[in-house]
Design goal:
This protein is of the alpha/beta class. Helix content is 30%, strand content 24%. The protein contains eleven helices and 16 strands. The chain has helices at 3-10, 12-30, 44-49, 87-90, 97-106, 147-152, 171-174, 195-202, 214-230, 282-285, 299-316, and strands at 64-68, 73-83, 115-125, 128-132, 163-166, 178-179, 182-183, 190-194, 235-238, 243-245, 248-252, 261-266, 271-274, 319-321, 331-338, 341-347. Strands 1-2-3-4-5-8-9 form a seven-stranded mixed β-sheet. The protein has a five-stranded mixed β-sheet with strand order 10-11-12-13-14, with no helix packed on it. The protein has a two-stranded antiparallel ribbon with strand order 6-7. The longest helix has 19 residues, at 12-30. It is globular, with a radius of gyration of 19 Å. The termini are far apart. The structure holds zinc ion.
């Protein structure tokens, strides 16, 4: 049903290509990737000699964007983009393709090829470096798995992360933990995962409520099961509103998966909510929050969760970012104009 993702996840040839792309990128990662002064025609040798930007605070770099919330900083790190497959029944399976295409057309988006982005979030407070999710690794093709090079641009590697929050166990959030069975380097990180999520994927993982085809369901169960079982010894199982570190807590957003979690980060100046997979595409999720997403394990509950969380962030004027918003994806949500636009996302302007 989703040739784009199915093809990318199942073809070893593609994974091989992706591996080559990542190896090739290590040279790029060594280059100076942040250029705040717009130096004209810098020579590659000079770029290579420059140190990566210093992490923490509001220092922008290639592939990531940071905000200081007051004593705690958050940095959206792009992992890349991938083909989502046909826009219907990816969205609004209960409705028609014509409805989805008309809705996308109103926003200037052609129905094909339909692409999505995926990001992780780095939270830094004192000595703590907490990351939310691992990205896709190379399992989604050569345009993903860029986390490693984007970490390198701020002088970090996966081994510098001491706590990894896993929002849920879908492949675009966990497959960056290991590449073809070998860990990518989160060796010093303890893991946090919702108990409901671990229980779901440890068992038969009923995906019959979703619209994924049997092949995709098999791939999802395999990667999630392997991840949950393989990381058990390092994982602390948590629940809604549990505190991860000072100022960082889990917020349950069930439906997409049973244990799907968002993360609230509170600094002395500002609070934000990382909505993870509450929204899968900004052109659809905000304006049509009732439209089901094919990957939702319980689409009805997921839509209910999406509507109530969005209503709450509007009422409380909460700053948000998310796993699948247009990079970097910080912004606010406001009421929309009507039935074809229930809510509207207002992206924040880039701050240098
Ligand atoms: Zn996702």
């Amino acid at each position: 049903m989703y040739p784009g993702i199915n093809e990318q996840m199942s073809r070893r040839a593609m994974m091989g290509m992706a591996g080559a792309a990542v190896i090739g990128s290590s040279a790029i990662a060594k280059m100076r990737l942040e250029d705040k002064t717009m130096q004209p025609a810098a020579k590659p040798e000079a770029d290579a000699a420059a140190a990566p930007v210093k992490p923490t605070g509001r220092v922008q770099a290639y592939g990531s964007y940071a905000m200081d919330l007051g004593g705690i900083s958050v940095r959206v790190i792009a992992d890349g983009d991938f083909g989502f497959g046909p826009s219907w029944p990816l969205f609004n399976a209960a409705g028609t393709k014509a409805e989805v295409d008309a809705h996308l057309a109103r926003q200037g988006i052609p129905p094909q090829p339909f692409r999505g982005q995926v990001h992780t979030l780095l939270i830094e407070r004192g000595a703590d470096r907490v990351m939310i999710d691992t990205g896709c690794g190379t399992s989604f093709g050569p345009d993903t798995g860029r986390l490693t090079r984007h970490l390198a641009a701020i002088g970090l590697e996966q081994k510098d992360i001491n706590l990894l929050i896993v929002s849920h166990c879908h492949p675009d959030h966990i497959n960056g933990y290991a590449e073809e069975g070998k860990p990518t380097g989160f060796s010093n990180a303890k893991l946090v995962l919702a108990k409901t999520e671990a229980d779901f994927w440890s068992g038969p993982a009923d995906l019959s409520g979703s619209k994924v085809d049997p092949e995709m369901a098999k791939l999802m169960r395999a990667s999630a099961g392997m991840f949950v079982n393989g990381t058990k010894a390092k994982t602390q199982l948590m629940a809604d509103r549990d505190s991860v570190i000072d100022g960082v807590k889990l917020v349950a957003a069930p439906g997409h998966t049973p244990g799907h979690m968002m993360v609230e980060i509170a600094g002395s100046k500002q609070k934000m909510l990382f909505i993870t997979d509450l929204i899968h595409h900004a052109a659809v999720g905000f304006s049509k929050p009732a439209w089901h997403v094919a990957f939702d394990a319980d689409p009805v509950m997921a839509a209910k969760t999406r509507q109530s969380v969005l209503a709450q962030v509007v009422a409380e004027k909460t700053l948000i970012a998310g796993s699948h918003l247009p990079f970097p994806g910080f912004g606010h949500v406001v009421e929309g104009a009507g039935n074809d636009e229930v809510f509207r996302f207002m992206p924040m302007a880039w701050q240098f």
